[in-house]
Amino acid sequence: xxxxxxxxxxxxxxxxxxxxxxxxxxxxxxxxxxxxxxxxxxxxxxxxxxxxxxxxxxxxxxxxxxxxxxxxxxxxxxxxxxxxxxxxxxxxxxxxxxxxxxxxxxxxxxxxxxxxxxxxxxxxxxxxxxxxxxxxxxxxxxxxxxxxxxxxxxxxxxxxxxxxxxxxxxxxxxxxxxxxxxxxxxxxxxxxxxxxxxxxxxxxxxxxxxxxxxxxxxxxxxxxxxxxxxxxxxxxxxxxxxxxxxxxxxxxxxxxxxxxxxxxxxxxxxxxxxxxxxxxxxxxxxxxxxxxxxxxxxxxxxxxxxxxxxxxxxxxxxxxxxxxxxxxxxxxxxxxxxxxxxxxxxxxxxxxxxxxxxxxxxxxxxxxxxxxxxxxxxxxxxxxxxxxxxxxxxxxxxxxxxxxxxxxxxxxxxxxxxxxxxxxxxxxxxxxxxxxxxxxxxxxxxxxxxxxxxxxxxxxxxxxxxxxxxxxxxxxxxxxxxxxxxxxxxxxxxx
Length: 495
Prior knowledge:
This protein is an alpha/beta fold.
């Protein structure tokens, strides 16, 4: 049990895919460091334990979503949540992380003291209400980028009049049975594309209502590429080569779409037409008003979304919801949809760094006033790291690079007798939004996020190759990072 007086080298906030990844790096590379992982919920696994809606799975292949040093050995590449959760927990146990995890420990605030060069970390036990305070040299926020306690649902008029069931995917009830019921899913993002075909297996009819279409690509759920590489190069080298190949393929697809959006649109449309019934209105339902990768691409495992449309168990409606009625929904076009169950797959509520307040020497940190450094620190905030993965590739690719660089940086300061480091923003640095993605949940949160600069190391790059050069190949120190000593210690040294 964590004691109120406990002092650590690192406090990791969050025991999901990112937090476990950072902790595994600390255990493996710097076993001399004392760390703890604080998890607000009663279980590890983060997203993969939280979401319980039908069909929930990864939309990235597990070779790149998994940890680089722990090969994914299951045949399914777009793995269901239960298999990902088992993988994360097995990796945690094998990496010696479990003994460092404290469940039901919610971080409520952190405050930096320059005098002591320490963070005070306020913690509340979510199971008992007990309040604790820990101290640590470093804090690493790995709690994801969205609120776990609530999803985003826009205001719908007439919701109280509806006689059926309304549910958000983030709060899926265990006892909800859709067998032979009419289900309407509002939304067209990754969750909806995954959820709709799974619901269609039991429901009488599933209707997906989208204000605007999205790009959807069918991807094979199983992949024999890893096996082929391993047969030629052996298990270890073959797996590493397959992983590099997949990383390169993802990057090439993204670059092609960004450089040649018109061609990409035509190719995606051609793929969609081949998967849809003859005469289907592709231009209405699969022609987004934005270019590929202005928003994250949606993935249909083995083309299941298109198969459900072909079979007639799913219908698409491109329209807006005016209000709920007693029997269902009234759309802007005047069309009425009858429903027994309405699923509001309308997105997430972004919450950077776990949502807890941060203060440096009693001055509150206002995130939009700060700029990211190397994609994992903030200017003017000492000894604080965080994890934000890629929006155009597997999340873990970025987190794994950050975890390695962070661990080496913490170790360097420890080995050289320095207490702290802080990124210092250069004068005249031009800034822009942190995440240049058109998704609704990102747009709604831009004013609450830190910014990025226009030159390295102040850019939030979404290119794996660039991050390898900056986070893996380059030294942990550069001209933008200032080393510090505790003021109390500096005074003693001066005397």
